[in-house]
Amino acid sequence: MPEVKCSVANCEYWAQGNNCNAKTIMIEVDKHAEVGYDTEFATDFVDHQDRATSVRNTCCHTFEPKKSKSS
């Protein structure tokens, strides 16, 4: 897997050095940013293809808020 950089430090998959340590990374175009791929229709992503006009038209769906550590 390629090295993936991420500066979203409150993501569960954020690792030291601004690295992403998620097993799978899902990236989508912004027009589908609100689509819930964690719902029953998540399999739609498998055959789903779009074209982005620039890097600014993409977003990461892998983000998961970091779980708080209980004391």
UniProtKB/TrEMBL annotation:
Give the species this sequence originates from. Answer: Paenibacillus validus
Q: What is this protein called?
A: DUF1540 domain-containing protein
Q: Where is the DUF1540 domain?
A: 4-63
Q: Identify the domain of life.
A: Bacteria
